[in-house]
Each structure stands twice: as C-alpha cells, then as structure tokens.
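Lab notebook page, bench 4
Experiment: in silico fold of construct C2
Operator: M.H.
Input chain length: 703 residues
Purpose: comparison with the prior construct
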Amino acid sequence: MAALAARVSKQRAAAEGLGSNQKVVKYLGQDFETLRQQCLDSGVLFKDPEFPACPSALGYKDLGPCSPQTQGIVWKRPMELCPSPQFIIGGATRTDICQGGLGDCWLLAAIASLTLNEQLLYRVVPRDQNFQKNYAGIFHFQFWQYGEWVEVVVDDRLPTKDGKLLFLHSEEGSEFWSALLEKAYAKLNGSYEALAGGSTVEGFEDFTGGISEFFDLKNPPTSLFQIIRKALRAGSLLACSIDVSSGAETEIITSQKLVKSHAYSVTGVEEVDFCGRPEKLIRLRNPWGEVEWTGAWSDDAPEWNYINPRQKQELDKKAKDGEFWMSFPDFLRQFSRLEICNLSPDSLSSEEVHKWNLVLFEGRWTRGSTAGGCANYPATYWTNPQFKIRLVEVDDHQEGGTGEPRCKVLLGLMQKNRRRQKRIGQGMLSIGYAVYKVPKELESHTDVHLGQRFFLGHQPLAQSSTYVNLREVSTRGQLSPGEYVVVPSTFEPFQDGDFCLRVFSERRAGALEIGDMVAGNPHEPQPSEGDQDDGRLYSLFEKLARKDSEIGAHELKTTLNEVFSKRTDIKFYGFDINTCREMISLMDSNGTGTLGLVEFRKLWLRIQKFLEIYLETDCNQSGTINAQQMMTALKKAGFTLNNQMQQIIAMWYSCSTLSVDFDGFVACMIRLETLFKLCRLLDGDQNGGIQLSLDECLCCVLV
C-alpha cells in the first residue's frame, strides 16, 4: 500500500514539473541549503546519516566489512589531508581525475569527458560550494536518473589509507571536487563497490540526460571520423574500449601500452599534413593518468618531426598527462567499440540540427504478469508491456534519396536501479525490444493489449540489434507513417525489473502505453440463472441462518469451505475470514454485515460464474491457473486492467510458483468487484475521477 501511494504521489509531482533541471528531486528528501544552514547555525560539520562513513558505504563483497582490502581504512575530511583544501583549482579539467583502488574507470572516463563541456560540468557540479565561505562539511551534486534530475548531498568524509585518498583523486592532491563527485555517485548507487565495472555511457547519460549510441570499430561507418568530429563540436561525450575474450584479459596491458577492457575518453580529433598527405589523428585519455600508447604519433614518436612545427606545438600543448594521440587507422585497428552520448539525438552523420520530441514511459517487468521474455517464448511474450507510437507527420528532410515519406525515430530502453541491486546478487538483465507495424484493420483496436495470436502472426519491422546486459540499448531508424507497437522485454521470462523507454522523434508523434485503460463490467447474475440449484441453496441457507434469518462471515466461511473442499477439479485451500467479510460487504445492501437469502443467492451465483471462468482458463486441467492465465481470466470476468494493476494482482494473489488457486482467484474477483462498485458510486458525474476527504478515504479502504 505504501509503495503504491508513493508511486501515485511521484506521478502527480512529475506532472507538476518536479524532476526537471529547474526543479530537481531531493534525493532521500535531503535539501542542501537547509542542511548547510542548520550546520552553520549549530557550528557542527555535517555528518550524512543516509550514507555514513562506515563499512557499508564501501561495499558488500570485495569491499565488504571483513575484506582485506578495507582493513586500515580511515575516513577523513579534506582539511585533515592537506593544509589548504580546494574544491576546484583554476577550473575543473580532465587531469583532475586519477583512478584509485576502485574498478570504475568507466565512470572516470565519463567525468573526464564532462570537463570538456563547462556548461554540462557546472550543472552536475554546482559552483556554490567550497572549503572557505559557508563551509559546513556538506556538498551537493546533480545527476539525471531515468527521466528526472536528482540532487544528492554528501558529507566530505572520504575513505583514506596511509593518509592518502583510496579512490578517485586529483593529480594536484589538494583539489577535491572529483573525489566528492564520486562519493555522491556511490551514494546514489548504494556503495562504492557498486560502481565497479560498467559502461561509460552510464556515466554519460547520468551527467547529461542524453541518449547513447554504440559503434562497432571492426565494422565502422565510412564517415566515422566526421561523426566523431561533429559529436565533439556538439559537446557530446565519447569513450572507447578494447574488448576481451575472457575475464583473464581484463586490464591486461598490450605491448604498445593500451589497456584492455578499460574505458578511455575521446577528447579530440585533428587532421594534419604529414609528408604531403592528410593524416587523421585522434586524442584519447587514460583515466589512470599514466600508461600511454607507444605506437605511431605517441608523445615522442618520430612522426611529429614531419608536420608543421607550429601545429606540432599546438597539438602537444593540448595533450596532458595520461593523454595521447594516435592515427585514426591505428585507433580502428586497436579498439573495439566507441560510445557516443548525444545531448540531443540529432543525426551525427548529418549537418542538420533538429528539435526532437521526447516521450518517456516508465514500466516494470513483473514475474507472473508482465515479464514475458523475448519472442523465443511465445506463450508469455505477449504479456510484456506494450507501447503504441503513432507517426503522422513526415520529416521535412528525407534521407536516403528513396523519395518515400519517412519519420526519424530513436528508441532507447533503459533498465533501472540495477547497480543498487548488485549488493543482493542481481546484475544487469539482458534486455532488448522489437517494433511491430500495426495493420490497418487493427489500428482502431491497439488501445487494448495485443494478444498471443497477433505476435504469432506478425514479425517485427525493427528491433534492437541484440539482447545485451547493458543498462541501455538504443536504435535509430526511419519508419513510414502509421501505427507501431514497441515491445520491451528481458531475454528470459519471469525476470523482475524496472525500466524506462524513451521515444525520440523529429516531428510530433502520438504515443501511449497500450492497456492503460481501466474498466470493470463484471457479470451480474440474472434471476433465472441457477434455478436448478434453488433447492440446494435453500437447504444450505436454512442450515446456516441464525434466528434472524441472516448469515454472518463465520457461517459463510464454514459452509463455502465445506462445499468447495470436496471438489477434485480445482486446487482449493479454503477462503479466509477476510475474504468472506468482503463477500458480505459486496452483497450486503442494507449495511447489517450479514446476508439474507436473496443476497446469499446472488453471491452463490457469482461464485459459480467464477468457477466456470476458472475451469475454462485451466486449459491443462491441472486444477490451478498461472499468473499469466490470470490476465485471460480477468478479461472473461469483465475486467480491463492496466499493467500496474495486473502486477499488483500477480504479487498478492499468486504463490511463489506463480500459480493462483481457486480461493485466491475468487478473493481477487470479489475485491475487484467491490472496488469498482465503490468507485462507480462515488463518481457521481461519471467523469472517471473521484475526490475524497481523509475520513472518506479511510472508510473506503476499510470496506
């Protein structure tokens, strides 16, 4: 209940602009200005209760409390490490970032790239903080998280060993903005250890809110050099790495001093005149601040003697420690993958600049309801969340020269909060998505969840390149006008996970979550139904009824359990007293808390109808239905529910094996009927919304 209320509250706050860069979300409810002022007033340096300077902040396994790596660690404030600590000295630069004893080179490469764009940098690292004026031991940073900007505060107690910072540090030694930024990001993800291993684009996106694309350097586009140059000019963030064939090769240094499976920042490209011919160069930076390329165009390579001395001096001036140049052909031969995070999804292969429209959906894969796995699992694939895109307006500038009207679309599927779950052994899921063209005859029906038959008869028109355990997968494409269904999924079914789906389009596009409609039109028994059972009903009622000819919850429980426990075609463990109370609440027309004969008869007919639906849905006659079949049964019973409600039902009414027994099924049906009946009564003008006072809300919840 608390989680559901929090989700509704968050949705309402987002609708009012909370989460924008101008109105950031205060992470864990901590407000920087308020906390700093409290510390200044009390004369006490801030100690963060939400991320205390203790072993749990370091990690859970390799950096866990009993790990040898954490022995001898002391948390110290910068003023205890040097006589005159500074937040930033002479502007933040990429040489302020040197890797420590944490495998987060991917994050450091992202931070180094961030320093190349001052506007982006000071959005993430606000300027209004230092170790002099209004110093209170508290600092704050801003990150983009799944569609919203979040402000994270930290105290300045940093882990040290032998008097030196253990993790990220500046070359200067007295500059601390980068170490505090790393701590804030560790807090956001649960611990320092949670940052070990990753893809640089995670950091890129959390610093910018941009959208990333990957390039395979073994099969690069012919215009890749131009793409990189345009990306750097546009302020995009770039990184590259060398793939490994096994874990044993991780961070192995090659004979030419390149580090495998290590994230490098791409910081520049140039074209020089070399011996009368043009030579393309690219500049990279190793976050270690050392170990540089020793091949052609490295720091002391002979090639530099054959270019214009003035250009040589200029390029040499731009390269700092840990940074080096190499020829572009060598770059393609040596590296495996390039990652570019675009601040907007403008095509890097075109000089045109577009204003893109964005629609962001938040969703969840839940075992038993919406975690259907990929198309290899047709029995469950259709139960995945589905999103409709309606493209009507074609782009102004058509690419490819085909003449056929097209609409540019960029889709990004991102799984949420997986780093925080590493502590409990849950890493990244393998995710992907498929895009289906909706046939004309079905366009008017795509507000309803598409079923198994549709996906058995239709192939995807586009899809993510592969299912991969990255935080985000994205694909750019051009689609003809029409309606499309996007199905995001994990590779394996029955895997829980939260996600967000971003849909960028050059022109305005309609987009909605399919199955977002909620409606209830349950079967209402007619007087003529069940005439043949009237004799049995009367005898049951006579047996149960008290002197006032009414049946209470305890009598109802005893009788129904006695009747249904004799059946061999259903799994039945007995109705509990609360379900029987809800049955009475649903049918009790005069508020006595008991049932008369007429009311009891209506209830009996309802339960018989539920039994009929249950047996129809139990295709293999196992005596039970699974949580996926529950969706079919709900439709047969007259309920149209959105994904969120289906997930709640799967959570509360299915067991650990995702099966729903008959007593759970009836309890769910009774609960839904009660809620829909209540909402219809309170929605006087039938506009789909109700407003309740606190006492009215509490009374409704207690019904």
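Observations: The chain has four domains: 19-208, 211-342, 357-397+404-516, 531-702. The longest helix spans residues 597-617.
Next step: discuss at group meeting.
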